[in-house]
From TrEMBL:
Residues 26-142 form the VanZ-like domain. The keyword Transmembrane helix applies. Keywords: Membrane, Transmembrane, Transmembrane helix. The chain crosses the membrane at residues 12-34, 128-146. This is Glycopeptide antibiotics resistance protein. It holds the Pfam family VanZ. It comes from the Bacteria.
Length: 182
């Protein structure tokens, strides 16, 4: 763990892994969402909140579970990967949740707008809502526990030896003493 400014950040290995996994997840989302679909006809864009969710529920429980579950799970990893890439251990729980959900909702909106230019794809506002809900659920299920584990791990780790000493004259190097060899 490293100390930086007012809050602590995770080890650089966690942050690099988070960034790499985040880029991979975003590439997967783009691949799944931005492919042209072959269809003889397409429905009109849905700009009314909860309209397509009601339509899915009218198709039956199994079909609604499949459609809504797919949208929940597609963006859910962002709920963990965005805070992991940020690397803040001492982040406020509500602030972290809001930042993560807002960032993922903006990503989802961008993908939905990009879909409007692709053949066979239709803009649906409910997709953004379901994606944001999936991100929030994943964040609440994983991030507080992982941050707690990292804080406990940080507290149980021994303090590193200080190599610099701050005096009234400024910062000076502190050289460890070496004993006499036999």
């Amino acid at each position: 763990m490293q100390g930086h400014g007012p809050g602590r950040t995770a080890d650089i290995r966690f942050r690099v892994a988070g960034i790499l996994l985040l880029v991979t997840q975003l590439a997967f989302i783009a691949w799944v969402s931005l492919r042209p679909l072959t269809a003889t006809w397409v429905t009109a864009a849905n700009l009314e909140p909860l309209a397509s969710i009601r339509g899915d529920l009218e198709l039956g429980f199994a079909e609604a579970t499949r459609r809504i579950g797919r949208e929940l799970l597609l963006y859910a990893p962002l709920g963990v990967l965005l805070p992991l890439a940020g690397g803040r251990i001492d982040a406020h729980r509500l602030g972290s949740l809001l930042r993560t959900v807002l960032a993922s909702a903006l990503i989802s909106c961008s993908v939905e707008l990009a879909q409007s230019t692709i053949a066979g794809q239709v803009v649906d506002v409910d997709t953004v809502l379901i994606n944001a809900l999936g991100v929030a659920l994943a964040h609440l299920a994983v991030v507080p526990a992982v941050r707690g584990w990292l804080r406990r791990r940080d507290q149980s780790a021994p303090e590193p030896a200080l190599l610099w000493e701050e005096t009234a004259a400024g910062v000076t190097p502190k050289i460890p003493r070496v004993g006499i060899a036999p």
